[in-house]
């Protein structure tokens, strides 16, 4: 709403011969005082690091952060990364991790929200329990699941053996093939409640009369969902999926604590790999170049993110 | 005529059956999700009241033969070194999270208000710049911030963490609060202005009280974020007496890898404050998401 009027105003101003940006800024100088603290903090902690990362990515850096001794090497860091085999392995892992976690967490969260939409006894309690994993620390979650997956004393292994489905407890996180799916299960455990809250909030905006009208007209439960509920939730869904995707793409704690990227890089994703390059092997230049690549990927995602967010505003403005 | 009379109850019956089918699917699904969610937490609690010996058995003791609170006593006892460390980490986490929360409310409230009410040049750009912060992972900022903190002499201080946490709490805080301010009619303020209040007074006396739920939601969000943060704390703090809980627990248990009851007890106690806080105030949080995120 406000954005739309802002744009319209700007257009009007442009047409009526532009009174000068500087004068506008001067006239609104008091308004900036409100935003200034937020912007200042952002500048120190965001703009400077971004600049510095880009700069470092063109340099070869000695270990130990003696950054005065860095030497300019152009794009060498980038070629090193793109030609290494680990890079493609890690990229593939990141893709599976991000897509798998995001989609499954969203579907589970959405389904839970739908199932919880109807009033029933104990609904509030159930909702509260389901939200808890989202609130507790990822470090705690990692340890809890590490214990559950434990190859000798883990509860899942014991249940599988008890039911006769396995001869001995399987190695969930010590095996190259199962480690990534196992970590995704943990990640979804922590994340589906977020999708659930968002979609529950979204469901409240679906007009009740419309659903009732559809029911009177003989629409089945599925038809009501598909033709009435779902279209109303398109914007919330987009925002939720994007937020989840970004969070997953950026996640670090679960793989780092549970496996440290192992065994043999099978659970390394971009972020953990960059961290290891920087703080483990002290290859700051390469790590920075990696970060810049990450940054570019995120900017692409960010474009859709902002478009989805402003899309919401636009629609509200036209309504 | 007679055909419609015949088919009507039939169709009704089929519809009811189908509705029931959906309801049962929903119930079974919810039961499955409840299991998925609760079993790990219950297993954490059960393990935390076992002895170290009882935890390391196969097949596991589903309920400990001799439940014991020894792990909790050890962690909460200021006399021994483990307890001393744990209580210190706990206090550090509490301090950092509380200061972060207070500061982020102080910074986010005016910013969100300005983004909602004023139209100054560059407003949209700044707003999206703030939101974009959400896009970038901690790791991108880690190396330069590490250097920046060394430059500012903030290494190994809680100041470094508070400053950093402030920035990643702010975007969502501002976004949520802006949604709240958008919903408060400007007329209320205008009425106050006509009655002689300054813009600032109108803001403090009219807008602030109306946006309390939003502020509470923002505060919860900042607190939980700071309480659970790991990667910066892991990088910026090296001295044992400065560590926050997530890092402290990780450091401690990378040395005592087999003390799973202790680990589970520590995980449980680390979770209690944020879970309680969230459950008590979740009403506000869900409402803030509804008003801030969904409608806007």
From TrEMBL, chain A:
<feature type="transmembrane region" description="Helical">
    <location>
        <begin position="95"/>
        <end position="117"/>
    </location>
</feature>
<feature type="transmembrane region" description="Helical">
    <location>
        <begin position="239"/>
        <end position="258"/>
    </location>
</feature>
<feature type="transmembrane region" description="Helical">
    <location>
        <begin position="124"/>
        <end position="141"/>
    </location>
</feature>
<feature type="domain" description="ABC transmembrane type-1">
    <location>
        <begin position="91"/>
        <end position="305"/>
    </location>
</feature>
<keyword id="KW-1003">Cell membrane</keyword>
<keyword id="KW-0472">Membrane</keyword>
<protein>
    <submittedName>
        <fullName>Carbohydrate ABC transporter membrane protein 1, CUT1 family</fullName>
    </submittedName>
</protein>
<comment type="similarity">
    <text>Belongs to the binding-protein-dependent transport system permease family.</text>
</comment>
<dbReference type="Pfam" id="PF00528">
    <property type="entry name" value="BPD_transp_1"/>
</dbReference>
<keyword id="KW-1133">Transmembrane helix</keyword>
<feature type="transmembrane region" description="Helical">
    <location>
        <begin position="32"/>
        <end position="54"/>
    </location>
</feature>
<keyword id="KW-0812">Transmembrane</keyword>
<keyword id="KW-0813">Transport</keyword>
<feature type="transmembrane region" description="Helical">
    <location>
        <begin position="287"/>
        <end position="306"/>
    </location>
</feature>
<dbReference type="InterPro" id="IPR035906">
    <property type="entry name" value="MetI-like_sf"/>
</dbReference>
<dbReference type="InterPro" id="IPR000515">
    <property type="entry name" value="MetI-like"/>
</dbReference>
From TrEMBL, chain B:
<feature type="transmembrane region" description="Helical">
    <location>
        <begin position="125"/>
        <end position="149"/>
    </location>
</feature>
<feature type="transmembrane region" description="Helical">
    <location>
        <begin position="89"/>
        <end position="113"/>
    </location>
</feature>
<keyword id="KW-0812">Transmembrane</keyword>
<keyword id="KW-0813">Transport</keyword>
<keyword id="KW-1133">Transmembrane helix</keyword>
<feature type="transmembrane region" description="Helical">
    <location>
        <begin position="260"/>
        <end position="281"/>
    </location>
</feature>
<feature type="transmembrane region" description="Helical">
    <location>
        <begin position="24"/>
        <end position="46"/>
    </location>
</feature>
<feature type="transmembrane region" description="Helical">
    <location>
        <begin position="161"/>
        <end position="181"/>
    </location>
</feature>
<keyword id="KW-1003">Cell membrane</keyword>
<comment type="similarity">
    <text>Belongs to the binding-protein-dependent transport system permease family.</text>
</comment>
<keyword id="KW-0472">Membrane</keyword>
<feature type="transmembrane region" description="Helical">
    <location>
        <begin position="202"/>
        <end position="224"/>
    </location>
</feature>
<dbReference type="InterPro" id="IPR035906">
    <property type="entry name" value="MetI-like_sf"/>
</dbReference>
<protein>
    <submittedName>
        <fullName>Carbohydrate ABC transporter membrane protein 2, CUT1 family</fullName>
    </submittedName>
</protein>
<dbReference type="InterPro" id="IPR000515">
    <property type="entry name" value="MetI-like"/>
</dbReference>
<feature type="domain" description="ABC transmembrane type-1">
    <location>
        <begin position="90"/>
        <end position="281"/>
    </location>
</feature>
<dbReference type="InterPro" id="IPR050901">
    <property type="entry name" value="BP-dep_ABC_trans_perm"/>
</dbReference>
<dbReference type="Pfam" id="PF00528">
    <property type="entry name" value="BPD_transp_1"/>
</dbReference>
């Amino acid at each position: 709403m406000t954005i739309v009027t802002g744009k319209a105003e700007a257009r009007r101003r442009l047409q009526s011969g532009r009174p000068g940006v500087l004068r506008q800024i001067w006239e609104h100088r008091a308004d900036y005082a409100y935003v200034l603290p937020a912007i200042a903090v952002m500048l120190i902690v965001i703009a400077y690091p971004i600049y510095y990362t880009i700069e470092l990515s063109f340099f070869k850096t000695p270990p130990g952060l003696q950054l005065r001794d860095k030497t300019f090497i152009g794009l060498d860091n980038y070629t090193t990364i793109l030609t290494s085999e680990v890079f493609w392995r890690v990229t593939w892992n990141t893709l599976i991790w991000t897509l798998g976690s995001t989609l499954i967490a969203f579907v589970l969260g959405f389904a839970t929200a739908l199932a919880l939409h109807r009033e029933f006894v104990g609904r509030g309690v159930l909702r509260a329990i389901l939200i808890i994993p989202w609130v507790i620390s990822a470090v705690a979650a990692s340890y809890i699941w590490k214990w559950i997956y434990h190859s000798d004393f883990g509860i899942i292994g014991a249940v599988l053996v008890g039911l006769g489905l396995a001869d001995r407890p399987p190695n969930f996180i010590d095996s190259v093939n199962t480690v990534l799916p196992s970590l995704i299960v943990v990640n979804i455990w922590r994340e589906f409640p977020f999708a659930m809250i968002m979609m529950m909030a979204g469901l409240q905006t679906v007009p009740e009369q419309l659903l009732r009208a559809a029911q009177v007209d003989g629409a089945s439960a599925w038809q009501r969902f598909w033709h009435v509920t779902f279209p109303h939730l398109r914007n919330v869904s987009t925002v939720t999926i994007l937020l989840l995707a970004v969070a997953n793409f950026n996640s670090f704690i679960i793989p780092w604590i549970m496996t440290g990227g192992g065994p043999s890089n099978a659970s390394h994703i971009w972020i953990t790999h960059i961290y290891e390059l920087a703080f483990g092997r002290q290859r700051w230049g390469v790590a920075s170049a990696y970060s810049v690549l990450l940054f570019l990927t995120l900017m692409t995602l960010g474009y859709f993110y902002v478009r989805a967010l402003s899309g919401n505003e636009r629609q509200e403005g036209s309504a | 005529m007679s055909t419609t009379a015949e088919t009507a109850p039939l169709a009704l019956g089929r519809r009811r059956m189908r509705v029931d089918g959906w309801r049962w699917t929903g119930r079974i699904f919810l039961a499955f999700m409840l299991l998925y969610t609760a079993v790990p937490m219950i297993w954490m609690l059960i393990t935390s009241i076992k002895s170290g010996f009882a935890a390391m058995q196969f097949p596991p003791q589903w309920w400990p033969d001799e439940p014991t609170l020894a792990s909790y006593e050890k962690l909460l006892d200021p006399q021994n070194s483990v307890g001393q460390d744990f209580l210190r980490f706990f206090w550090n986490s509490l301090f950092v999270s509380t200061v972060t929360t207070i500061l982020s409310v102080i910074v986010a409230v005016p910013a969100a208000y300005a983004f909602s009410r004023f139209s100054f040049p560059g407003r949209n750009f700044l707003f999206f710049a703030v939101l974009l912060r959400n896009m970038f992972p901690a790791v991108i900022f880690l190396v330069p911030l590490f250097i920046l903190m060394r430059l500012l002499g903030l290494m190994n201080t809680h100041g470094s963490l508070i400053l950093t946490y402030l920035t990643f709490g702010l975007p969502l805080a501002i976004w949520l609060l802006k949604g709240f301010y958008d919903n408060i009619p400007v007329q209320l303020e205008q009425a106050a202005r006509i009655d002689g209040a300054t813009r600032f007074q109108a803001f403090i006396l009219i807008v602030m009280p109306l946006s309390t739920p939003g502020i509470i939601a923002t505060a919860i969000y900042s607190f939980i974020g700071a309480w659970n943060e790991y990667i910066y704390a892991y990088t910026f703090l090296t001295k044992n007496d400065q560590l926050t809980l997530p890092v402290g627990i990780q450091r401690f248990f990378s040395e005592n890898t087999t003390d799973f009851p202790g680990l589970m007890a520590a995980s449980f106690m680390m979770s209690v404050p944020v879970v309680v806080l969230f459950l008590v105030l979740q009403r506000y949080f869900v409402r803030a998401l509804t008003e801030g995120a969904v409608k806007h």
